[in-house]
Amino acid sequence: MSKPILSNSAGTLQAVALSERVHWIGVLDPNLRTFDIILKTANGTTYNSYLVRGSEGVAIIDTVKEAFAADFFTRLESVARYDEIKVIVLNHLEPDHSGALPELMRRAPQARLYISQKAQSMLKALLKQDALEFTPVLTGDTVSLGDRTLSFLHTPYLHWPDTQCTHLIEEKILFSGDVFGCHFCDTRLFNDQVGDFRFSFEYYYAHIMRPFKAFVNTALNLIEPLLPLQQILPAHGPMLRDQPQRYVQRYRELSRSALESDIGADEKTLLIFYISSYGNTRRMAEAIYEGAMSIEKVRVSLYDLEGGEIAPFVDLIEGADGLVFGTPTINGDAVKPIWDLLSSLAVVNLKSKLGGVFGSYGWTGEGVKMVEDRLRGLKLRVPIPGIRIKLIPTDEEIYLCREFGLELAQELLGLRTAKVIDLADLG
Predict the structure, then answer these.
(1) Does one domain contain both 200 and 274?
(2) Which of 14, 164, 213, 224 is most deeply buried (CB count within 10 A of its CB)?
(3) What pLDDT is stored for residue 398 in this prediction?
């Protein structure tokens, strides 16, 4: 296939045909190197907008970042008049998708705006326009362009609460918003023509979609019945016209637990991570491991952070049910490898996982409490107070560590009985 023509012989920007009735009217941002602070963009990005023509009017699917609005309008004008636009759909309200919306609605005042139900409160806050009229939609709602029909899929938290996808039923095209997208700018536009964008696709998923795996799987349950699709057209990156089903399959693979086929439905997993300066925290870790191992139906793993890279542990943590961290206290703080591991977990959904902390200390032992506070901040449950042991553990203290591990394992299975404290013991 020939390379898409982005401008005519006079240098005027042109829309790119994706089918007889669908055009790309987006823009290129090849020089962007950081997106939303956290994402690196070695190839820049695209802000993809689409135009759909029906027998009774035109629909615009998403707009572009405000700074690039002039290019967007030039491409739009190459294939449609503003008075033909009947429908505007925003699959996502982030400024890189909604930036040109106010001007578009000024130029096409007759157009009706369609957004997700959850986008309603966000729209006013983002655009600061009280009089803006719109129609909220849910999964299954449709809008007709005559001989073309747009159907909406509610796909929240991919990656904002408001996100949705739009299905062009007659052409089996999915306008997927941020889903199946990536930050990769290439003037050849299509996945069967651009350079190798696999790294960008996986990197985008890891940083944008991974924290919301449960919502990804729910969205895929809506999208998979639409297969086979002719094209998947995301809001960023290459347009997926060659074997688009592969990208749906890849999302499903990435959204499954790595241990899903290996762990029984009635089993739980508990991971113990530790770092030890003089072997004291290590002895505690081993005792906790032994205690937890005594409970059937709990798979327990023990990892010394001194002997491993942080990145592979993130995948393990994501699929685990319980996490225990062991750290000595040095200079009034937990040690750096523990903080490095915890700071890497921002891309993982940890809510309601079981957490626990232990460690040895020489003077004050603040490290355990600090890590407990951090676990709670990450939305883990920390129902059992952490264990702090001064210097070398005694046999009695090692016994307490085993009991700590046993209690954690029981807690995972819902077998732990809460201890009753006698007020006389507190006197």
Answers:
(1) no
(2) 164
(3) 97
